Amino acid sequence: MNVRTIAPVILLGLLSVTFGCARNADEIRRDYQRAKAARTADWLERAYDLAGEWAVAYLSDHTDAEDEALTKWMAQLDPPSGDAGNSIRSAPVTEGGCGVCDLVTSAVRISRGLYVVAAGFTNDDYPQYGVGTFFLISRAGGKYQIAWTAAGSKDKRVDGLVEDITKLPPSAKGHPRFYLQNSDLQGSGCWLQGQLSVWEWDGTRAIPLLIRHYTSNFDLSGGDGPIKFDGQFIRVRTKESFKAFMDYSCSRDPEGEWTIRITPEEVMDLGVRRVHPELDLIDDLFDRINRRRNAEQLAAPTVISALQKTYPNGLAPVVPDWKLQGAELCVNLNMGEPVSHIFTLSRAGGTLFVTSVKDVSRACNSE
User: Fold this and answer.
1) pTM here?
2) In the chain, what is the greatest distance between 2 CA atoms, to the nearest angstrom?
3) 4 in any annotated domain
């Protein structure tokens, strides 16, 4: 069943600031450098304000700037600390301070005279940690202004560092829409914790249509990140959870695909589809055996009896590898000593079923 997820309309922060005359860029950069050097309690908010002013200064002279040009300009406000030769080894970024902070910015024009600009900070030693914000810049009366902001580091609904801004087709009312891909503060190991949010601009405020966290894996994300948009669907490659098998962060299993459909009328959350239902079936089978629950809908009685005899005390193994060939699923289990099983599967009416199981001495990835 499709489940429609529409987040409530919440105004994260509204700021309408018009700069009568854009300040000289060198002056803005000097103020930014002073704020970063002082590191007062409110320095992140001050840095975000100056990043906004920096963007407005450029757009005042380049009224129809392309995304790439504005993004390159934003990077000139604060080159990476490694390039500047002033690295300071310290703790990760936090809400109140910063170790080796590098300003990360991006910008996308979502309609004529309207830009989404993101600014945030990461850390040289801990790149998975970050804080950030985003704001919208619009042109009114021939002048650019910051029309709305997500309220900087105090905003708790948009977490982490904005890594990607993608323009979406407008709504049925003609309102510009976009989505943000954010990295989260909780990422660790091979896991990639993130947040996806979809927004609509109604002329005065950015309205959140969907905000949700997800877990992915660096192997799943690839070089372009875990999120793709094909013009109609946003698809997110996710790392889900097993029931019986032990999980470890550097494995991409169990793999999922979260889908959101974008139409002019609505944004619809279609939920997560498990990419490898065959592996999920074996996980579910072991879970039922462990819990002494009926598993006859999943496997033949001979299969259940064989597994109960092999694992009388239940099990929670790591699955380092598996391989599907035709109707046979070979699964390596690591329980101190490696064990491999080949499960023969059948499918009737779209339902998977285990018809037989046998132990094998070779590993599943062996020819």
Assistant:
1) 0.81
2) 81
3) no
